[in-house]
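Memo to structure team: turn this sequence into C-alpha coordinates by end of day. - J.P.
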Amino acid sequence: MFPVIFLIFIVVVAATCRKAGTWLVKKDVPVQADAIVMLMGSIPDRILETIDLYNAGLAERLILVEESMGSYRELQARGATIISNTQQCRNAAITLGIPADRIIVLPGDARSTQEEALIVRDYLKSSTDIDTILLVTSANHSRRAKIIFENAIKRAGLDVVTCSCPSKYSHFKGKGWWKSKENIQNVLMEYMKMANFYLIEKRRL
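Reply from structure team:
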Protein backbone atom coordinates (compact mmCIF):
# COMPACT_ATOMS: atom_id res chain seq x y z
CA MET A 1 0.00 0.00 0.00
CA PHE A 2 2.82 2.40 0.90
CA PRO A 3 4.48 2.20 -2.56
CA VAL A 4 1.18 3.15 -4.20
CA ILE A 5 0.67 6.10 -1.86
CA PHE A 6 4.26 7.22 -2.38
CA LEU A 7 3.88 7.02 -6.17
CA ILE A 8 0.69 9.09 -6.06
CA PHE A 9 2.46 11.63 -3.83
CA ILE A 10 5.36 11.95 -6.28
CA VAL A 11 3.02 12.48 -9.23
CA VAL A 12 1.01 15.12 -7.35
CA VAL A 13 4.16 16.98 -6.31
CA ALA A 14 5.45 16.91 -9.88
CA ALA A 15 2.15 18.22 -11.20
CA THR A 16 1.99 21.10 -8.74
CA CYS A 17 5.61 22.21 -8.55
CA ARG A 18 6.69 24.93 -10.98
CA LYS A 19 10.30 23.77 -10.80
CA ALA A 20 9.54 20.11 -11.37
CA GLY A 21 10.69 20.32 -14.98
CA THR A 22 13.97 22.15 -14.41
CA TRP A 23 14.91 19.76 -11.58
CA LEU A 24 14.85 16.84 -14.00
CA VAL A 25 17.64 18.40 -16.05
CA LYS A 26 21.00 17.54 -14.49
CA LYS A 27 23.82 19.36 -16.25
CA ASP A 28 27.36 18.98 -14.97
CA VAL A 29 30.34 20.99 -16.18
CA PRO A 30 31.89 18.79 -18.89
CA VAL A 31 35.32 17.48 -17.91
CA GLN A 32 38.07 15.60 -19.69
CA ALA A 33 36.87 12.01 -19.72
CA ASP A 34 37.92 8.57 -20.91
CA ALA A 35 34.70 7.79 -22.77
CA ILE A 36 31.30 9.09 -23.78
CA VAL A 37 28.36 6.83 -22.94
CA MET A 38 25.39 7.72 -25.13
CA LEU A 39 22.10 6.22 -23.99
CA MET A 40 19.60 4.87 -26.47
CA GLY A 41 16.23 6.51 -27.04
CA SER A 42 15.84 9.78 -28.88
CA ILE A 43 18.54 9.52 -31.53
CA PRO A 44 19.10 12.94 -33.20
CA ASP A 45 19.51 15.13 -30.11
CA ARG A 46 21.78 12.63 -28.35
CA ILE A 47 24.00 12.03 -31.38
CA LEU A 48 24.45 15.78 -31.92
CA GLU A 49 25.49 16.32 -28.30
CA THR A 50 27.86 13.36 -28.49
CA ILE A 51 29.50 14.74 -31.63
CA ASP A 52 29.95 18.16 -29.98
CA LEU A 53 31.66 16.60 -26.96
CA TYR A 54 33.89 14.46 -29.16
CA ASN A 55 34.86 17.40 -31.38
CA ALA A 56 35.65 19.44 -28.27
CA GLY A 57 38.26 16.81 -27.43
CA LEU A 58 36.62 15.82 -24.15
CA ALA A 59 36.76 12.08 -24.86
CA GLU A 60 38.17 9.80 -27.54
CA ARG A 61 35.79 6.84 -27.21
CA LEU A 62 32.06 6.37 -27.62
CA ILE A 63 30.23 3.55 -25.85
CA LEU A 64 26.80 2.40 -27.03
CA VAL A 65 24.64 -0.42 -25.69
CA GLU A 66 22.65 -2.57 -28.11
CA GLU A 67 19.02 -1.60 -27.59
CA SER A 68 16.15 -4.07 -27.62
CA MET A 69 13.81 -3.65 -30.57
CA GLY A 70 11.25 -6.23 -29.61
CA SER A 71 10.64 -8.78 -32.38
CA TYR A 72 13.00 -7.32 -34.95
CA ARG A 73 15.11 -10.48 -34.95
CA GLU A 74 12.02 -12.41 -36.03
CA LEU A 75 11.70 -9.99 -38.95
CA GLN A 76 15.30 -10.65 -39.87
CA ALA A 77 14.75 -14.39 -39.59
CA ARG A 78 11.96 -14.04 -42.16
CA GLY A 79 14.22 -12.18 -44.56
CA ALA A 80 13.41 -8.55 -43.80
CA THR A 81 16.42 -6.25 -43.59
CA ILE A 82 16.21 -3.87 -40.66
CA ILE A 83 18.82 -1.63 -39.06
CA SER A 84 18.72 -1.47 -35.27
CA ASN A 85 18.54 1.85 -33.45
CA THR A 86 22.01 1.25 -32.06
CA GLN A 87 23.41 0.62 -35.54
CA GLN A 88 21.76 3.82 -36.77
CA CYS A 89 23.50 5.72 -33.97
CA ARG A 90 26.84 4.14 -34.81
CA ASN A 91 26.45 4.95 -38.50
CA ALA A 92 25.48 8.55 -37.75
CA ALA A 93 28.44 8.98 -35.40
CA ILE A 94 30.83 7.67 -38.07
CA THR A 95 29.29 9.95 -40.72
CA LEU A 96 29.74 12.95 -38.43
CA GLY A 97 33.38 12.24 -37.70
CA ILE A 98 33.92 9.65 -34.98
CA PRO A 99 36.23 6.90 -36.32
CA ALA A 100 34.67 3.44 -36.36
CA ASP A 101 37.48 2.02 -34.23
CA ARG A 102 36.63 4.55 -31.51
CA ILE A 103 33.06 3.28 -31.15
CA ILE A 104 32.35 0.38 -28.80
CA VAL A 105 28.97 -1.34 -29.11
CA LEU A 106 28.15 -3.50 -26.10
CA PRO A 107 25.72 -6.39 -26.69
CA GLY A 108 22.82 -6.80 -24.32
CA ASP A 109 19.41 -6.19 -25.90
CA ALA A 110 18.75 -3.51 -23.26
CA ARG A 111 15.16 -2.51 -22.55
CA SER A 112 15.74 0.26 -20.01
CA THR A 113 18.23 2.77 -18.67
CA GLN A 114 18.89 0.45 -15.75
CA GLU A 115 19.81 -2.41 -18.08
CA GLU A 116 22.12 -0.08 -20.02
CA ALA A 117 23.76 0.95 -16.73
CA LEU A 118 24.34 -2.67 -15.72
CA ILE A 119 25.84 -3.56 -19.10
CA VAL A 120 28.15 -0.53 -19.04
CA ARG A 121 29.09 -1.32 -15.44
CA ASP A 122 30.14 -4.85 -16.42
CA TYR A 123 32.27 -3.38 -19.19
CA LEU A 124 33.89 -0.90 -16.80
CA LYS A 125 34.89 -3.73 -14.48
CA SER A 126 37.32 -4.97 -17.13
CA SER A 127 38.29 -1.54 -18.46
CA THR A 128 40.59 -0.23 -15.78
CA ASP A 129 41.69 2.68 -17.96
CA ILE A 130 38.26 4.34 -17.65
CA ASP A 131 37.72 6.43 -14.52
CA THR A 132 35.47 9.19 -15.92
CA ILE A 133 32.53 8.98 -18.33
CA LEU A 134 30.38 11.62 -19.99
CA LEU A 135 26.76 10.46 -19.87
CA VAL A 136 24.74 11.78 -22.83
CA THR A 137 20.97 11.60 -22.93
CA SER A 138 17.94 13.83 -23.50
CA ALA A 139 17.48 16.74 -21.09
CA ASN A 140 14.41 15.45 -19.22
CA HIS A 141 16.05 12.06 -18.75
CA SER A 142 19.40 13.35 -17.49
CA ARG A 143 18.94 13.43 -13.69
CA ARG A 144 17.35 9.98 -13.48
CA ALA A 145 20.00 8.55 -15.80
CA LYS A 146 22.83 9.91 -13.65
CA ILE A 147 21.20 8.61 -10.46
CA ILE A 148 20.86 5.13 -11.98
CA PHE A 149 24.43 5.03 -13.31
CA GLU A 150 25.95 6.35 -10.09
CA ASN A 151 24.05 3.78 -8.03
CA ALA A 152 25.00 0.92 -10.36
CA ILE A 153 28.68 1.91 -10.36
CA LYS A 154 28.75 2.41 -6.59
CA ARG A 155 27.16 -0.99 -5.94
CA ALA A 156 30.00 -2.58 -7.92
CA GLY A 157 32.62 -0.77 -5.86
CA LEU A 158 34.02 1.02 -8.91
CA ASP A 159 35.72 4.39 -8.67
CA VAL A 160 34.28 5.91 -11.84
CA VAL A 161 32.98 9.48 -12.07
CA THR A 162 29.77 10.07 -14.05
CA CYS A 163 29.43 13.51 -15.62
CA SER A 164 25.91 14.27 -16.87
CA CYS A 165 25.76 15.96 -20.28
CA PRO A 166 22.11 16.47 -21.29
CA SER A 167 21.64 17.28 -24.95
CA LYS A 168 21.16 20.96 -25.67
CA TYR A 169 19.36 19.85 -28.83
CA SER A 170 16.52 18.32 -26.81
CA HIS A 171 13.09 19.89 -27.35
CA PHE A 172 12.23 19.51 -23.67
CA LYS A 173 11.61 22.78 -21.84
CA GLY A 174 11.96 22.44 -18.09
CA LYS A 175 11.00 26.03 -17.43
CA GLY A 176 7.27 26.52 -17.95
CA TRP A 177 6.83 22.79 -18.56
CA TRP A 178 3.11 22.97 -17.73
CA LYS A 179 2.44 25.06 -20.84
CA SER A 180 3.04 22.18 -23.25
CA LYS A 181 1.17 18.88 -23.42
CA GLU A 182 4.34 17.08 -24.51
CA ASN A 183 6.37 18.54 -21.64
CA ILE A 184 3.63 17.71 -19.12
CA GLN A 185 3.71 14.10 -20.29
CA ASN A 186 7.51 14.02 -20.12
CA VAL A 187 7.63 15.44 -16.60
CA LEU A 188 4.94 13.17 -15.16
CA MET A 189 6.47 10.11 -16.83
CA GLU A 190 9.95 10.92 -15.50
CA TYR A 191 8.71 11.31 -11.94
CA MET A 192 6.80 8.04 -12.17
CA LYS A 193 9.93 6.31 -13.45
CA MET A 194 12.00 7.96 -10.72
CA ALA A 195 9.61 6.64 -8.07
CA ASN A 196 9.69 3.20 -9.68
CA PHE A 197 13.49 3.19 -9.52
CA TYR A 198 13.62 4.00 -5.81
CA LEU A 199 10.76 1.69 -4.88
CA ILE A 200 11.51 -1.32 -7.08
CA GLU A 201 14.42 -1.22 -9.49
CA LYS A 202 17.18 0.06 -7.18
CA ARG A 203 17.27 -3.17 -5.19
CA ARG A 204 17.99 -5.10 -8.42
CA LEU A 205 21.27 -3.31 -9.08
